[in-house]
Amino acid sequence: MKASVVIRCRDEERRIGRVLEGVRRQETDFPFEVIVIDSGSTDGTPDIVSDSGCRLIRIRPEEFGYGRTMNMGAREAGGEILVYLSAHCPPAGKDWLSKLTAPFSDPAVAGAFGGQVPEPGVNPFEEWRLARAFPKSRETLQENMFSSANGAVRKSVWEVMPFDEALPFSEDRKWAKGAEAKGYKIVYVPDAAVYHSHPFSLDGVYKRAYAAGWAKKSIYGRSCRFDSIAWAAGAYAYCLAKDALHLTGGGHLGLLKYAPRYRWLELSGFYAGARDFARGASHKAP
Question: Which ranges in the chain are annotated with CATH 3.90.550.10?
């Protein structure tokens, strides 16, 4: 088995079918399996997965953790390459899997991650951020990153360097940073794209940002400036300006009134999480 596609999910009945169908339609010259880890869905997600013929592993909600679930999938996988895919990220083409796994022909490659294309109108606040974070060209990638929403790792590397289960967020970036420190390569494959957008909502913005701020400060240390008031103020002004341009240009004038609140929740969450880590506080879910 060359590849194992590992999908983690919970209450994704509206989108999991589209994702599984997109994976099933992949055109490859190698065999692959699909493993779905469900962490306590109360909707029809498990039935959809079971009907698809994929392997379903069910765990209790309290057992979930990003790193923990990714390690669980890796232990259950028979593939040489572990392909992680979020349950709301359908592949953008039939060659997604072939392109994402292609870099592993180089034994120095430990990980690869693909592009993420926003679904128009789903969350305009995320559209320009995703376009910046996942550009169409490898040469214009602005930051060294890795994303398990659409990423793959070499299992033999994972076996000696599993994902950090203590991190509340960004376990994928910490793994990639550690792999590069050991001399491995992390490759960006923009053409191995998936559609990825979270529906617009103010609920949970602060909580997700707090976890991200805490985790990224723990990974990058002083180079992470999330706990700087000056950084937060500058980022707030920058984001509002970009939101105004993007929302007006995209015909989303009705969402302009939410921009100040959305960005305040996001950036104050980043700040609080990073500040708490810098002060030695353990992560807490706000």
Answer: 3-195
> Residue 140 above 90 pLDDT?
no
CB 155 within 8 A of CB 75: no
Long-range contacts of 44-53 (CB under 8 A, 24+ apart): 44/13, 45/9, 45/10, 45/11, 45/12, 45/13, 45/16, 45/87, 48/13, 48/16, 48/17, 48/20, 49/9, 49/16, 49/20, 52/17, 52/20, 52/21, 52/24
In 3D space, the residue among 86, 8, 17, 11 whose CA is nearest the CA of residue 43 turns out to be 11
Domain 3-195 has CATH 2.60.130.10: no
Cα–Cα distance list, 273 to 6, 230, 232, 269 (Å):
29, 16, 12, 6
Taking alpha carbons only, the member of 149, 131, 135, 126 closest to residue 188 is 135
End-to-end CA distance of the chain: 42
- Amino acid making up residue 108: A
Residue 98: enclosing H or E segment and its boundaries? helix 96-101
Q: 124-155 in b/e burial notation, b at 16+ Cβ within 10 A?
A: bbbbbbbeeebeeeeeeeeeebbbbbbbbbbb
Sheet strand arrangement including 32-38: 55-58, 32-38, 3-9, 81-86, 150-154, 109-117, 185-195
Instruction: Place 169 in a pLDDT band, splitting at 50, 70 and 90.
Output: confident
Q: At 80, is the pLDDT very low, low, confident or very high (cuts 50, 70, 90)?
A: very high
Q: What is the pTM of this model?
A: 0.92
